[in-house]
């Protein structure tokens, strides 16, 4: 039985300082010094709050918020300082922003806080709880602050990995187009590594896939090496600019998008942005714009700190992993890797039949996911 939500409150959460660099375009946002959340209150007072987060997406209107409040649990859609623009995003600053939000909610009197990582929030919430329980990261991959070992990072009471992937650098590398041979011209392509060349498939042979996956990692590493070279050049003038923007072409080329025989599921061919051949190059899809420092923190397969399984293995709280069987973004193997990494037995892995990535147009599944989360919290004792 559900009840109307009591009210919605916009939360202005004081933002922790990071490294002094300007990495937010908007002067209004910088001067406000806040990250934002939307609190959906239950009709009766709740001592438990569920907070949903992503590194850059706007979750102020997340689909879980109203259903949770109607069922008697307060819910918060969180943002980070990078809402809507991840071109200069540092994962370590996102951890600071979550820490500020969790401390804010503790000060509000919530006794139990559940952190939900949806989509790219999966790896981030794992990183957060890892650093909250056993802080170990003293700087970004570029050597900059923040030092998370000295930050205020209150641990949460439970984690939910919802239609989540293991981390932005991991999934980005799985999507990176290895056929691009000129970083400045995406039309120059290696036909032997082109998943969009019908001579290669779909379906794709095991031999092609092995070469393809290796070439994706190799391209990621070439970009990282170039980034390191550019940063070393900039460092020669300590009074000059210490970061630069650049473009990455071809970021939507996972063979699973077009070959449904790879990791079979209920998904349709394509991506959230339409056909893979279009999403691969369109500006509005994943990770086409980055700064040098952001690349190392966010997209470098070897240097990013945001490795979900690595950090989940350092956590101790109850963990629920849910995946959609029709998800075109986060695949069952992603969920399995997150689940397998949890080092204790207070964990659960569940598939949402026919569930797409954001359950768009699937209100009955939104209710099902909400009920499942609350039932699981009751079974673990997190929600009394």
Mind explaining what this structure looks like?
With 384 residues, the protein is an alpha/beta fold. The protein folds into two domains: 7-167 and 304-380, Alpha/Beta hydrolase fold, catalytic domain (Rossmann fold, 3-Layer(aba) Sandwich); 171-299, no CATH class. The chain is built from eleven helices and ten strands. The chain has helices at residues 27-32, 65-70, 91-107, 121-133, 168-175, 206-235, 276-279, 292-299, 308-312, 332-341, 363-380, and strands at residues 7-14, 34-41, 48-53, 74-78, 112-119, 158-164, 245-247, 289-291, 319-324, 347-352. The strands form two sheets. An eight-stranded mixed beta sheet has the order 1-2-4-3-5-6-9-10, with helices on both faces. The chain has a two-stranded antiparallel sheet with strand order 7-8. Helix 2 links the parallel strand 3 (48-53) and strand 4. The longest helix is centred in the middle third of the chain and has 30 residues, at 206-235. The chain is globular, with a radius of gyration of 21 Å. The two termini are 17 Å apart.
Distance between the termini: 17 Å
- Return the CATH topology of the largest domain: Rossmann fold
Q: Which strand-content bin applies to the residues? A: 15-25%
Summarize the main sheet.
8 strands, mixed
Radius of gyration: 21 Å
Helix content: 25-40%
Structural class: alpha/beta
The CATH fourth-level homologous superfamily of the largest domain: Alpha/Beta hydrolase fold, catalytic domain
Q: So what's the CATH class of the largest domain?
A: Alpha Beta
Largest sheet, order of strands side by side?
1-2-4-3-5-6-9-10
Mean pLDDT: 95
Helix and strand sequence: EHEEHEHEHEHHEHEHHEHEH
Task: Report the count of strand segments.
Answer: 10
CATH architecture of the largest domain: 3-Layer(aba) Sandwich
Q: What's the number of structural domains?
A: 2
- How would the global form be characterised? globular
Tally of helical segments: 11
Protein name: Alpha/beta hydrolase
InterPro entries: AB_hydrolase_fold (IPR029058), MAG_DAG_Lipase (IPR051044)
């Amino acid at each position: 039985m559900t009840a109307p939500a009591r009210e919605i409150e916009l939360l202005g959460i004081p933002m922790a300082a990071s490294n002094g660099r300007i990495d937010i375009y908007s002067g209004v946002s910088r001067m406000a010094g806040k990250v934002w959340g939307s609190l959906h209150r239950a009709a009766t007072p709740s001592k438990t709050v569920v907070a949903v987060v992503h590194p850059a997406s706007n979750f102020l209107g997340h689909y879980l918020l109203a259903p949770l409040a109607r069922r008697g649990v307060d819910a918060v859609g969180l943002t980070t300082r990078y809402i809507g623009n991840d071109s200069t995003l540092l994962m370590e600053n996102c951890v600071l922003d979550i820490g500020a939000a969790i401390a804010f909610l503790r000060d509000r009197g919530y006794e139990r806080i559940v952190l939900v990582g949806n989509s790219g929030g999966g790896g981030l919430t794992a990183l957060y709880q890892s650093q909250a329980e056993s802080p170990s990261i003293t700087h970004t991959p570029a050597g900059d602050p923040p030092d998370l070992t000295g930050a205020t990072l209150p641990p949460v009471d439970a984690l939910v990995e919802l239609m989540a992937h293991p981390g932005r650098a991991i999934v980005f590398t799985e999507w990176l187009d290895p056929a691009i041979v000129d970083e400045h011209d995406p039309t120059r392509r290696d036909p032997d590594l082109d998943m969009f060349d019908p001579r290669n498939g779909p379906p794709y042979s095991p031999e092609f896939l092995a070469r393809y996956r290796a070439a994706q990692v190799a391209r990621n590493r070439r970009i990282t090496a170039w980034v390191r070279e550019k940063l070393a050049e900039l460092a020669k003038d300590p009074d000059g600019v210490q970061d630069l923007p650049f473009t990455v072409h071809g970021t939507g080329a996972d063979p699973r998008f077009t070959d449904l025989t790879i990791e079979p599921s209920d998904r349709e061919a394509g991506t959230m942005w339409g056909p893979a051949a279009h999403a691969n190059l369109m500006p509005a899809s994943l990770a086409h714009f980055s700064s040098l420092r952001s690349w190392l923190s966010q997209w470098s397969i070897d240097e990013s700190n945001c490795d979900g399984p690595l950090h989940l293995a350092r956590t101790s709280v109850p963990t629920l992993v849910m995946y959609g069987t029709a998800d075109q973004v986060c695949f069952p193997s992603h969920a399995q890797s997150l689940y397998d990494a949890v080092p204790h037995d207070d964990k659960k892995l569940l598939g949402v039949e026919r569930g797409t990535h954001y359950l768009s147009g699937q209100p009955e599944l939104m209710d099902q996911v909400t009920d499942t989360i609350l039932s699981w919290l009751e079974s673990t004792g997190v929600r009394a």
